[in-house]
Amino acid sequence: MIKKCLFPAAGYGTRFLPATKAMPKEVLPIVNKPLIQYGVEEALATGMHDIAIVTGRGKRALEDHFDISYELEHQISGTQKESYLQDIRLLMEQCTFSYTRQNAMKGLGHAILTGEPLIGREPFGVILADDLCDGGEAGGVLSQMLKIYNKYRCSIVAIQEVPQEDTLKYGVIAGSELEDNVYLVSDMVEKPDPEKAPSNLIIIGRYILTPDIFDILRQTAPGKSGEIQITDALLTQAKRNMVLAYRFKGRRFDCGSVGGFVEATNYYYQQMLAE
Fold it and tell me: How far apart are CA 55 and CA 100, in angstroms?
C-alpha cells in the first residue's frame, strides 16, 4: 500500500493574474471546491492519506484550508450551511497534512526533490492540482495507476493522446505497448517541437514514483528553461530499470489554462445539477 502523496504547489499561477496575485492558484474554486481539494480526495480514494504539500511564499491559504476555522464553524453551527463543510471535515479527519517550502522556482523535478523529507524512502504518488481528472466509472486516475504499480513495482506516469501540434506544451513519451494502454517507456522529451516529438502521448500531472527518483534528481542537471525536469530524471530511471506510462481512462481538464478552467467549471456544475 502506498500511503503518501506529494502535491507540488509552489508555482505563481501567472496565467491567472491578477486573481493569483494574493491567492494560490491551487485554491481557485471549481464551482464551490478548491482545485487542490479535488486532488486530495483522489489521493485519499487511492488509500494515500499522508498528504505532503510543497508550497512557497504567499501560499498560507493552502494550510488554512485544511485546518479548522473556529470562527466560521461557530457562526454556521446548527444551520443548513454546516453541511457545506462535510467533505473538507472528512478529509481533515482521515488525512494528515505536512508542508515544506520550495524557496526557488527551479522546475517540477526540483519541487519533487524538495518534498523528499516529507516522503522518505518509500514509493509515493504525485498529483499536480491544476490537472483535474475525472476517471468516471474506472475510478480516480491514481487508483487506476496503483493497480499497475502493484503488478510491476516501478515508476509510472499517466499519459493521454493529444494533437501533434500540442506536444510543445508537455513532456512526451515514446515506448512500446506492454499491455492494453500500458507502455514501456524508451524515451521522454520535455516540450519538444511538434516535428521532433517522439509521439503524441503527453505526460499529465499524475505519477507514482519509486524513492530512488530522489537520488537521480540530485544528479540531474538543469534542462529545458534551466529547470530540473522530472522527465529527464525519469528517462534516467527508465534506462537503469523500468518506467511505465499508462493511458488512463477518463477525462482531464487543464486548469492551469483559463480555457481549461472554465471548461472544468461548466462540467462539474452540470455534474452537481445532475445529482
Answer: 6
Cβ-Cβ contacts under 8 Å for 172 (sequence gap 6 or more): 188, 189, 190, 192, 197, 198, 199, 200, 201, 202, 203
Distance CA(260)–CA(252), nearest Å, equals 9
Give the C-alpha separation, 213 to 46, whole Å: 21
User: In terms of Cα–Cα distance, which of 11, 15, 43 is closest to 260?
Assistant: 15
Kindly give the interhelix angle for 141-152 and 35-45, rounded to the nearest 10 degrees.
40
Percentage with pLDDT > 90 across the chain:
67
User: What are the CA-CA distances from residue 49 to residues 9, 36, 95, 97, 181 (Å)?
Assistant: 18, 14, 5, 9, 27
Q: Which domains, and CATH codes, for the chain? A: 4-274 (3.90.550.10)
- pLDDT band with cut points at 50, 70 and 90 for residue 226: confident
DSSP secondary structure letter of residue 29: E
227 contact partners, CB below 8 Å, separation of at least 6: 105, 106, 107, 108, 109, 110
d(Cα 10, Cα 102) in Å, to the nearest integer?
A: 6
Q: Where are the beta strands (DSSP E) in 15-91?
A: 29-30, 33-34, 50-55
Reduce the DSSP state of residue 200 to 3 states and report it: coil
pTM assigned to the model: 0.93
pLDDT tier, 136 (very low <50, low <70, confident <90, very high otherwise): confident
Q: Is 95 exposed, middle or buried (0-12, 13-18, 19+ CB in 10 A)?
A: middle
